[in-house]
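Reviewers of the previous submission asked for a worked example of the structure-prediction workflow described in the proposal, so we include one complete record here. The input consisted solely of the amino acid sequence. No template or homolog information was supplied to the procedure at any stage.
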Amino acid sequence: MAEKEKTVRKSAAKKTAEKKTAKKAAVKTAAKKKTVKAQNKQELDPVFLTGFDRYLINAGRDYKVYKKMGAHHAVHEGRNGMHFAVWAPHAKAVAIVCDRNGWNPEANYMIPLEESGVYEGFIPDMGYGELYKYAIHTKSGDILYKADPYGFSAEFRPGTASKTADIDGYNWDDAKWMTERAKKRTFAEPMAIYECHLGSWFKNDNTDYKDGFLNYTQYAKELVDYCGYMGYTHVELMGIAEYPFDGSWGYQVTGYYAPTSRYGEPKEFMYLVDYLHQHNIGVILDWVPAHFPKDAHGLADFDGEPLFEYADPRMGEHPDWGTKCFDYSKPEVLNFMIGNALYWYDEYHIDGLRVDAVASMLYLDYGRKDGQWVPNKYGGNGNLDAMEFFKHLNSVIRGRKDGTIIIAEESTAWPKVTAAPEDDGLGFTYKWNMGWMHDFLDYMKLDPFFRKDNHNKMTFGMSYATSEKYILVLSHDEVVHLKCSMINKMPGYEVDKFANLKCGYLFMFGHAGKKLLFMGQDFAQYHEWDEKVQLDWWLCDEPLNKSVQNFMRDLLHMYTKYPAMYRLDDSWEGFSWVNADDATRSIFSFIRRDGTKKNSLLFVVNFTPVERTDYMVGVPKKGRYTLIFDQDGAVTKESGKKTAFTAKAGECDGQPCRIEYALPAYGCAVFKFNE
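From that input alone, the workflow returned the following structure tokens.
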């Protein structure tokens, strides 16, 4: 019995010793973990992103979300450095990788913030201009190296890292522009937009450095010189948000908050906007909330699972483009997108966003065959999430009341695109008039002999011109992919092509609606647009090309000089046909008014190579009609041409009076008169 008791005590003592050893080991392990945690996470308390911040992010209501997410200078425990925050709710762990830690995915783990899906971290002594990514440790055991969705700058391609950047402290000099913009009546102002892809607009001779791209500062001066000379009111810039592949033209974005590094740093882009504003030129950016690419460093499957995109591939992938589609049902995604739109308005002073591929967002079956899409809860093909996204975003923009605008590239007959959200509209300021564009180009490509049978293609646009707030566009999409340049769409011999093009441009600028031309179209560049090479500027010294450029310069200046050409674009009071039915002769005549009965404009355009020496056009009253523009451009007293015409009584074109004017082949005429 004594021996047995001794054995039991010995066994108990052993167990007690084992427990003590295990406890010591546990304490030691805990201390080691605490030390590692302290080293890797710096024991950062979630003081930068407060509970309220996280609530707003998860609710989709933090419109300044970019001020907290991403990389920002911060001071922690008395040390300067960079604070990082990223949304990755499906991740097992997230770390910051950069030059400072040798891109080690286990060197700087981030802290998951309670019930938010957000991770934050701090690296002491890190400053601006340093490259970094997030190492996403997935549940499957993989490590994904992702660029920062909220990164303010990015590495020049082919590099894919984000770069810390300071976007605060720029000294803006555009206060006058910003103040006046807020006071203007948006729809009553002229808008002649120059659509421009900077990288192929102009290059320097040093192609070994960034493929010959100029920087934003240099582009600013060149754009002001050219657009000021020509008379454009706005520049619309393609491909500003960072993207990896030049051939996407900037429509497959990986850095929504980063001005592309192709042309310089964020503050240099601020300078570009500032400089254009100082010279009375507005700035519009292409914006792509419809889809994003599958590049490994981008938003696709960001934390190892679908996050920014819909999980169901029938909604989350675009089969035609091979891209991912944003999930507009997630508040955090809405916050990312709406915050991004406002970021460009607030931090870069841009005047407008042109939203790409709106139709692809609105229609669940866009570009999809049966079985490739999911109907909405009512059984229809409308994306209810996207509709609410637009209404939410555009309500916020309308509520700013600072003159900023937002434009829809919407290619269908979706109703009320520019109507107010409270009237069940989507709330856009303007809509690209794609229907007018296709009809116009179909007509212009025809041999003049066949135009009489397609006369309605040029008149139909006015039948719905007031149904939306429209911009008439001849965009980059119309001069690529074997569609031919504008000049090479025109029929006839070379001289006829140029005459045709001038007639088309005058008709376009006389028609109701704001205006947009793509670069190179205003001097009749021959070859299709190619993003790899600059425009053929040498053509501006060729007589025929120069004649088109001069014609467009005069036309643009006439457009901005006479309010009749723009003030009542969205009203039938601003436009009336004189003769919309002269199909046999392919001649169009109409009047533009501004509501003052002063400086009304009568347009006449002859779309055939047949001279009409006995031409008469109806006018509303007797009196003096002054020729101010023809097929050669602005007509002045010094030109030697007859400029004064007197209207005589006598019915013509349903009008009580008429003027006689010898209309040349492919002739154009604009007469100024008072009513």
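The CA atoms of residues 539 and 670 lie 28 Å apart. We consider this example representative of the routine output the project will generate in years two and three.
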